[in-house]
Amino acid sequence: MNQVRKADPNNKTVAENRKARFSYEVLDTVEAGLVLTGTEVKSLRQGQANIQDSYASVEGGEIWLINSYLPEYLQANRFNHEPRRRRKLLLNKREMAKLSQSIEREGMTLVPLKIYFNDQGRAKLLLAVGRGKKLHDKRETEKQRDWSREKGRLLKERG
């Protein structure tokens, strides 16, 4: 699928789901556009969003982002948006077909990893196809992280 450029200074991360990489084994990532209203974009530009408990699902041949939180834009008064509304994701038909097949056949889930603005200033969502980790896998990940942290400390002290 599409590869996202690494460490691009123009990409401004708005919200990140750090818990997702701990709870899910990420197999593939896809960059998707978001259908947003004007006040939602303004709220994102202020850096206010939460995708911690959100997920994506395939319904009626379309992919939707569910349970994401974009707070109301305070200066909008009565023209504000609903903070937890379902948001449609923009993908190619081929990408949608591939994602829906992997979900149905292999029992994977669609997990949002981060929301950011790309070079053109458009809000994008990094969506991952992942498999849920078991408890022993989570423990192994934690052990590896602790060991790499400890190894870094030892190398810093000695050298």
* Helical amount: 25-40%
Number of strands: 7
Distance linking N and C termini: 41 Å
Instruction: Describe the global form.
Output: globular
Question: Which structural class matches the secondary elements?
Answer: alpha+beta
Task: Figure out the total of helices.
Answer: 4
Topology pattern, helix = H, strand = E: EHEHEEEHEEH
- What does the largest sheet look like? 7 strands, antiparallel
Quote the beta fraction: 25-35%
Q: pLDDT under 50 segments (min length 5)?
A: none
Mean pLDDT: 85
What order do the strands of the largest sheet run in, or round the barrel if closed? 1-6-7-2-5-4-3
Rg of Cα set = 18 Å
Commentary on this structure:
With 159 residues, the protein is α+β, with helices and mostly antiparallel strands. Helix content is 33%, strand content 31%. The chain is built from four helices and seven strands. It has helices spanning 18-23, 38-45, 93-106, 135-158, and strands spanning 12-16, 24-34, 55-59, 62-66, 87-90, 109-117, 123-132. It has a seven-stranded antiparallel β-sheet. β3 and β4 form a beta hairpin. The longest helix has 24 residues, at 135-158. The radius of gyration is 18 Å and the shape is globular.
Question: What distinguishing features does this structure have?
Answer:
globular; 33% helix; seven-stranded antiparallel β-sheet; alpha+beta
Short description:
With 159 residues, this protein is an alpha+beta fold. It contains 4 helices and 7 strands. Residues 137-159 are annotated as: Disordered.
